[in-house]
Specification:
It is a single chain. By secondary structure, the protein is an alpha/beta fold. Helices cover 34% and strands 19% of the residues. It has one domain: Aminopeptidase (3-Layer(aba) Sandwich), CATH 3.40.630.10. The chain has a five-stranded mixed β-sheet, with helices on both faces. The chain has a two-stranded antiparallel sheet with strand order 4-5.
Length: 195
């Protein structure tokens, strides 16, 4: 079996639907992400992925997961917060056929759940990583970007302490993958394909 197939075989559609439903069903707008973070912590614990909390302020934090040799050569960044809910009638998750609806389902809890599952699949597959991976689940993206700012400042300090530049790709909205391009804002959108 190829390494790629081992990773694919480690992905569980049922587990993805479970965790996506849990995260979307948990209200977590900017400045009140706590409940959503707890669901992601439950997911990381269930998948036995080690993580740490990076304080953003006294009550809020980012979740950082690192696997393989460090420092990482690839960092995935997604945000766990959503916009505020203005209509209580549409609160919660709804599944109709193959479609899942709810606050944060596209922006961007689905991307965060998929990234966690992908990282767990890589670990479970047993392949030996030649370079490290980092997943950062940040808070505050919908309003002020304070979670991303904290992450960026931390990464810049790490790079300056090490005395070398690390190659790190940053994909803020991993649900919107397009052709490879680089932007001045520090994002790299790419299409990943297998051969």
């Amino acid at each position: 079996m190829s390494e790629f197939q081992a990773v694919i075989d480690s992905i569980s559609p049922e587990r993805l639907l479970h965790w996506l439903s849990e995260t979307v069903d948990t209200y977590g707008p900017t400045w009140a992400e706590g409940p959503a973070l707890l669901v992601f912590e439950d997911m990381l614990n269930a998948l036995e992925l080690p993580y740490r909390k990076q304080a953003v302020d006294e009550e809020r934090y980012n979740l950082i997961v690192e696997v393989g040799p460090q420092p990482p050569s690839l960092m995935w960044v997604g945000h766990v917060d959503t916009v505020g809910l203005y209509d209580e009638e549409h609160r919660g998750v709804r599944v109709e056929g193959d479609l899942l609806y709810g606050l944060g389902s596209a922006d961007m809890k689905s991307g965060c759940v998929a990234a966690v599952e992908a990282l767990a699949a890589v670990v479970r597959s047993g392949i030996e990583l030649k370079q490290g991976l980092r997943l950062a689940l940040v808070v505050g993206e919908e309003e002020y970007g304070d979670g991303s700012e904290k992450l960026l400042n931390w990464c810049l300090r790490l790079w300056s302490w090490s005395g070398s530049q690390q190659t790190c790709s940053h994909a803020q909205h991993i649900t919107g993958i397009s052709k490879c391009s680089c932007a001045a804002a520090g994002r790299a959108h790419m299409r990943l394909c297998r051969r």
